[in-house]
Amino acid sequence: MAPSRDNLSAVLHKARDLRLEQKELPEPGPQDVVIRIHKVGICGSDVYYWHRGRTARFVVQSPMVLGHEAAGVVETVGSQVTHLRPGDRVAIEPGVPCRLCPICKAGRYNVCPAVRFCATPPVDGTLTRLYRHPADFCYKLPDHVSLEEGALLEPLTVAVYGCQRAGVGLGSRVLVCGAGPIGVVSLLTARALAAARVCVTDISPSRLEFATGQGADGTVLIDGASEEELAGRVVAALGGPPTAILECCGAAPSVRMALQAAAPRAKLAFVGRGPPDMDLPMVTIAAKELELNGVFRYANCYPLALDLVASGRVQLGPLVTHRFTLEESESAFQAALDGRGIKIMISVHD
Ligand code: NAD
Ligand code: ZN
């Protein structure tokens, strides 16, 4: 097949100014691969950049290609790449650290101060026909794992790391706050890790219905009842207080309710991004010796997430509720902003 000259890309210039433009054709460095991108899932952060030109910490100051949940087919490989070859189907881990600092050497590369993450300003993302990436941050997909599933490994990896940070394991009673894509993959992961029961909360009945369809043992609708009352409903749904909590919405009342419901010594993983500051019940945290763990993306979890999918223990297919082409990117972002469905997928190549 002749190499493609088309590198149409979805480039955000500023809030609400997304343009389809041809970008330079990427050439691989010695340790890189160039990937023909097939599928890119839309994440909340992409929608924030598109809608507002920023997230809490990062501002789009120069044109940037959006997208970071991606999979595709290797087109060319650099001279030193030995584990991938043209034609391999791969999932892309979008955050590449410096690899040299003490934090990277300790294996915590997600919090490397020099990490470069796709579609986090000023780094270009993956909504582009041809994309260059370090080969060791690409994971070869087995034949039976689809490219859509490959793209969905990114949010699944957030859940795998979140479950590690919340200590989810055999027999855990798990509370997942928020039934968006991240909450749902957290539910799926907790079940795969042999949690005893999983309860999911949300303010949206339709999202809770979806979580029930994905195997939630119980759900609690956040309906204006007091935090005490809601915590009681969570404990009843789980048959006891949660031992592991994945906070996947970021709302302060949700965090407080979860801490109130928590079992002594429970661990809470802060996945959701909420306000920069919040009031928390410090006496409860101290008296129950609760552990509050931040979550910043993930480290060393892509292979685990891929194994969950390849072994059939997690099925991601039902999460994709809407599909668009690269040329329809603007409509895809609008659909995501409107909160339609669960996961919106863009096809860059079929
Ligand atoms: P989403 O917005 O689609 O889902 C959030 C869900 O929380 C929604 O269904 C919403 O109805 C629900 N919600 C709102 N208020 C609530 C409340 N008080 N109680 C319970 N549920 C409530 O977002 P998502 O894509 O599923 O991501 C979830 C969160 O995780 C976001 O805040 C996102 O920024 C964050 N995130 C963090 C990381 C990380 O590295 N820590 C990575 C990816 C996403
Ligand atoms: Zn580093």
Tell me what the structure shows:
With 350 residues, the chain is of the alpha/beta class. It folds into two domains: 165 residues, Medium-chain alcohol dehydrogenases, catalytic domain (Quinone Oxidoreductase, Chain A, domain 1), CATH 3.90.180.10; 137 residues, 3-Layer(aba) Sandwich (Rossmann fold), CATH 3.40.50. 28% of the residues lie in helices and 25% in strands. The strands form four sheets. Strands 3, 5, 6, 9, 10, 17 and 18 form a seven-stranded mixed beta sheet that branches. The protein has a six-stranded parallel beta sheet with strand order 13-12-11-14-15-16, sandwiched between helices. Helix 1 packs across helix 10. It starts with 7 loop residues before the first strand and ends with a strand. The relative contact order is 0.15. The site of nicotinamide-adenine-dinucleotide has 27 residues, from helix 4, strand 12 and helix 7. One of its GO terms (molecular function) is L-iditol 2-dehydrogenase (NAD+) activity. InterPro entries: ADH-like_C, ADH-like_N, ADH_Zn_CS, ER, GroES-like_sf, NAD(P)-bd_dom_sf, SDH-like. This is Sorbitol dehydrogenase. It comes from Amphibalanus amphitrite. Its cofactor is Zn(2+).
Uncertain stretches = none
Report helical residue fraction: 25-40%
Give average pLDDT, whole number: 97
Order of helices and strands: EEEHEEEEHEEEHEHEHEHEHEHEHEHE
Strand-pairing-aware structural class: alpha/beta
CATH superfamily of the largest domain: Medium-chain alcohol dehydrogenases, catalytic domain
The rough form would be described as globular
CATH topology category name of the largest domain: Quinone Oxidoreductase, Chain A, domain 1
Strand content: 25-35%
